[in-house]
Amino acid sequence: MNNIVIVIPSLDPDKRLIDLxxxxxxxxxxxxxxxxxxDGSSAEYAHFFDEARKKYDAIIxxxxxxxxxGAAIKTAIRYFLxxxxxxxxxxxxxxxxxxxxxxxxxxxxxxxGNPGSLVLxxxxxxxxxxxxxxxxxxxxxxxxxxxxxxxxxxxxxxxxVIPRDFCSLLLKTNGExxxxxxxxxxxxxxxxxxxxxxxISTVYLDGNKSSHFRVIHDSLLIYSSFIRFSxxxxxxxxxxxxxxxxxxxxxxxxxxxxxTFASFLARFCSSVFNYSINQKIVFEGKSxxxxxxxxxxxxxxxxxxxxxxxxxxxxxxxxxxxxxIIVDFILFFFSFYIQKRLIFRSE
Length: 347
What we know:
It contains twelve helices and seven strands. The protein is an alpha/beta fold.
């Protein structure tokens, strides 16, 4: 354990923070470095941080105002990289007593057996887990699996062992609040950092009332890239369908050639808008040749869309515009995955 630094972000803590530090100091076999981040706590909580420093030898890093869990972890990482060159990584844990020291040790042991890996202490989500935590984790796990191919049972765990080399990369990862932990998983995938899960105890105290997670606001941040992509795609979709519908109204032919021509013209007009928004706002990617890769995807999608619109119109005689809406909606999810993973992926 002495090759790892414990990092504890904290906002307005209570006695459970001190109990956690007592547990660590009692059970440690060698002295463990502890970095405690005061993320803009009110003055009335200052005595907890003072006690942590004086009695339990914790290094206290302070934010003058609340900046978020992600920002707190990044502050600890900067200190760790600069001041602790002999350590192999950090392990982040929550300050409210949800993470047992024995589980921390087990996760670090897994890390020591798999150096360079990101180790997640994952919980089991039974009926005893508060609904908002269970629902939020299940939703993010499914979205992560669909759009990145990463299969993780607990995307929101705060117990993570992070290797030193990955720490440097995380300073460039987007997110200052709870969304940082989700973006960390995307970043691990992008940089080929192995992710290993280790089962830990599931502890929720008082229905998890101590959590500073703001259900609506922080959920929007966690799903921000998908939400921005959806809005961008919706506007592009309306442009696309509008132009396509105009051509279907103007021409009576419903041949594959006519549908393909109308689809290409409509998609070209909508793609100019869509590429600009996705490149600058949605994915914020710096990938080279993104425009050429993007338009290869556009061409592929147009042919696939045109084929299925023509085929379904021939076999069902449904309205072509209606069929196009259904087909393109299905292709929407395929497009999100390709753009995030291949086209706008930061190098």
